[in-house]
């Protein structure tokens, strides 16, 4: 089964920049497909995870957190459709937070941040390496997304739900 790779904090605001398409080309032996510009890859022929991880790290011009999951987990997440079929409410963005390892939280979901006043981040569920929810576009939102690392016991990166759907399409097209 293919793997899916998520890099944390790359190509954001001119920091830790690289060209994902070039990295995918350099890792062609692993069947790497680049999904967007945020450091998301589908790996069709991964072989050993450790060997692939080392090859990927060698191609990056900086150190970063790397979360890897089985493609099947993405397909399961899409199938379970945590957001249902209705479109998101105006002004809300659906997201999936991908942890390096399965969540270690005792947090009761749903959960909103901040707890007082108007919420900016609303978590609706978690499954394995994934925490999903919605956020409002606001300058303070990133602060609350960063708090999720502590709440769930490890480093994570955020992807828009549309990116998860694009990954699922790519996984289905390669099977």
Features:
4-stranded antiparallel β-sheet; Alpha-Beta Plaits; alpha+beta; 175 residues; globular; 2 domains; 30% helix; single chain; 9 strands
In short:
This protein is of the alpha+beta class and 175 residues long. It has five helices and nine strands; from the N terminus they run E-H-E-E-H-E-H-E-E-E-E-H-E-H. It folds into two domains: 3-73, Alpha-Beta Plaits (2-Layer Sandwich), CATH 3.30.70; 85-161, 2-Layer Sandwich (Alpha-Beta Plaits).
Shape: globular
Give the fraction of residues assigned to helices. 25-40%
Mind describing the biggest β-sheet?
Answer: 5 strands, antiparallel
CATH architecture of the largest domain: 2-Layer Sandwich
Would you give the CATH topology of the largest domain?
Answer: Alpha-Beta Plaits
What is the CATH top level name of the largest domain? Answer: Alpha Beta
Count of structural domains: 2
Distance N to C terminus: 9 Å
Major beta sheet, strand line-up: 6-7-8-5-9
Beta-strand content bin: 25-35%
Oligomer: single chain
List low-confidence stretches: none
Radius of gyration based on Cα positions: 16 Å
**Tally of DSSP helical segments:** 5
Label the structural class.
alpha+beta
Q: State mean pLDDT (0 to 100 scale).
A: 90
Along the chain, the helix and strand elements come as EHEEHEHEEEEHEH
